[in-house]
Specification:
The complex is a heterodimer of chains A (283) and B (291). By secondary structure, chain A is mainly alpha-helical. Helix content of chain A is 52%, strand content 6%. Chain A has helices at residues 3-8, 13-29, 44-57, 74-87, 97-111, 117-139, 149-154, 175-185, 189-193, 206-210, 214-226, 231-236, 241-253, and strands at 35-39, 62-66, 91-93, 141-143. Chain B has 291 residues and is of the alpha/beta class. The chains are: A mainly alpha (283), B alpha/beta (291).
Chain lengths: 283, 291
């Protein structure tokens, strides 16, 4: 990353922490909840969410849910438990192997073919979402999102799966900023240092699958999204055209994942268009 | 000389979105607290009675000045002056972002927000009509003026009040925290601080900045209210991000000294400005329909 961009993306971590913990406290309690629940994968994003939530709400008002699948790397569960231990927060382990395998056993038979790795991965992400929303009702706790700005923009996530939540404290932080804030808050070293992975199949890493590094993505996204430079301008600054196009196309292609379903307009007041209220309406 | 000093209190708090009665009772609590602090003027943030992003709640939360809720606030000014802000509805059903200054149980002045931002995250002009004047009024402290949030980001606004002789300019605001993450930058917060410091020195007057706190759908309002003196130094500064009542004494002798030391407003060439603005407007309107 070029030093001038790196400087722009360098956080003031105490200020950001105070805004994000304030956000969690305010938006959880004003809708009548006291607690938050979230999936803890062993990766850096959910670890950061855990640290922020524990600081915002207190360790007894957060609940971590660890949801391994039989092919999950054992290190993932181990790292997730390190977070639980470091924070002293309650946690539950729910193995998602049985429901996911039962589903594909049936569907593979009905469709007469083996599900692709992508379908299996999406199903796992959605199984985790279903589990979290059930525990949300069981524990009277709001579901926290753990997707960062880089993956939300790239659409590197499963719609209605890991992208689903009631509120997301880290969705406006690029991956490199997640790393900074995680280090500042004391996320365990083994989590800070390992290669990011969705861990949906063996040897998967985000950067291998995306075809570029998070640093590359952050650097280009920042200039395009935040500084509003055109892709041509960015290429003109000496970045690879192929890389810039790949990132920009990916963001555009995945816009649908970031929006609520579109509705055919018939009436004078259509939800999402001219029926406008904040979600905080009445809170 | 109309005054030597008075005490101002700023209510930095988080209004409840769309709940006028809850906010009204919050306001009245602050009135009591300000009285106990012997304040003579109490200032509330922009849209303190309604919350900021009212969107389609605008129709519900709008109040005519004759509405009992607004009359209640005006009545609350019997013992100290109160500057409060709400969605004002007119007889012809236009809606304004208004700040009212009440004193002695009477409505003394109304400022309707002139600049309604629609860029970036803002969408005010969609719901509100813009005010059409920037005027001073007689208040405690001689001539005073009001600029609501975005009004103050326009260079001409404090100028217009200063040439009318304002010695205190009140700035109720609902300013969201943005572009503020980087270690090297301080975004909207720093922008406000620099702006108030520079304006106060250029105009030789006090600025009373009343910014709200709290969150609306993840948008954070950072507070940081305070009083900036005519010499460019903070007389009082509130905390960031938490509710507080900030109290400060405004001493007119500071204005007097500043205006003697650096008599910028005395030396203003108002007629030159007027002539050049007219010429600029004439030239601009031949190219485009500027207003």
């Amino acid at each position: 990353m070029r030093p001038e961009i790196e400087a722009k993306l360098a956080l003031n971590p105490s200020l950001v922490t105070s805004v994000l913990t304030g956000f969690l406290r305010d938006e959880v309690t004003k809708v009548g909840f006291q607690k938050a629940v979230f999936g803890l994968s062993g990766g850096i994003d959910s670890a950061l969410t855990a640290f922020l939530a524990a600081e915002a709400l207190g360790r007894d008002r957060v609940h971590a849910v660890l949801m391994p699948y039989r092919t999950s790397h054992p290190k993932s569960l181990e790292d997730a438990l390190k977070v639980v231990e470091a924070l002293g927060i309650p946690h539950t382990v729910i193995d998602i192997t049985a429901p996911v395998d039962a589903y594909f056993e049936q569907v593979n038979r009905v469709l007469g073919c083996e599900a692709s790795a992508l379908r299996r991965g999406n199903r796992m992400a959605r199984e985790r979402m279903v589990t979290l929303y059930d525990l949300s009702a069981a524990m009277n706790a709001l579901v926290l999102g753990t997707s960062n700005k880089t993956e939300l923009l790239l659409g590197y996530g499963t719609q209605f799966g890991d992208m689903a939540s009631a509120l997301n404290p880290i969705g406006d932080l690029y991956k490199c900023q997640v790393r900074q804030l995680a280090a500042y808050l004391g996320v365990p070293k083994s989590i800070l240092e390992k290669a990011p992975s969705a861990d949906l199949w063996a040897d998967q890493t985000d950067e291998k699958e995306l075809g570029f590094t998070y640093d590359d993505a952050d650097e280009i996204l920042y200039q395009w999204v935040d500084l509003r430079m055109s892709p041509d301008e960015i290429v003109g600054r000496g970045y690879s055209e192929r890389l810039v196009r790949a990132i920009v196309d990916r963001v555009r292609r995945n816009q649908y994942k970031r929006r609520m379903p579109i509705i055919a307009k018939l009436s004078g007041r259509t939800i999402g268009l001219d029926f406008r209220y904040l979600r905080d309406w009445g809170t | 000389m109309g005054w030597s000093a008075f005490r101002v209190a700023i209510a930095q708090f988080a209004p409840k979105l769309g709940d006028v009665s809850a906010n009204l009772s919050r306001h009245l609590d602050y009135v009591d607290e300000a009285k106990r602090a012997n304040a003579q003027v109490l200032v509330f943030p922009e849209l303190g009675l309604t919350g900021y992003q009212t969107q389609d709640l605008t129709l519900e939360v709008a109040r005519h000045v004759r509405h009992p809720d607004i009359q209640r606030m005006i009545q609350a000014s019997r013992d100290l002056d109160v500057l409060f802000s709400f969605v004002e509805e007119t007889d012809d059903c236009r809606f304004f972002v208004t700040a009212a200054y009440a004193s002695g149980g009477r409505l003394v002045h109304r400022h309707r927000k002139v600049y309604l931002p629609t860029y970036g995250m803002f969408d005010e002009r969609r719901y509100f009509a813009p005010g059409d004047r920037v005027r001073t009024f007689s208040a405690r402290g001689g001539q005073a003026g009001i600029l609501i949030c975005e009004d103050a980001w326009h260079l001409s606004s404090p100028y217009l009040l200063a040439v009318q002789g304002a010695s205190v300019i009140y700035v109720p605001a609902s300013s969201p925290w943005r572009n503020t993450m980087a270690a090297s930058e301080f975004g909207s917060h720093a922008f406000w601080r620099q702006l108030l410091q520079m304006y106060a020195q250029l105009c030789g007057c006090f600025f009373v900045f009343a910014n709200r706190v709290g969150y609306e759908d993840g948008v954070h309002f950072y507070g940081g209210s305070g009083v900036m003196g005519p010499n460019g130094e903070w007389v009082a500064e509130g905390p960031a991000s938490e509710s507080a009542m900030i109290v400060a004494d405004l001493d007119f002798r500071d204005v007097r000294r500043a205006r003697y030391t650096t008599p910028l407003m005395r030396d203003e060439r108002v007629r030159l400005v007027l002539a050049e603005i007219e010429e600029a407007v004439r030239r601009r309107s031949t190219d485009e329909a500027g207003d």
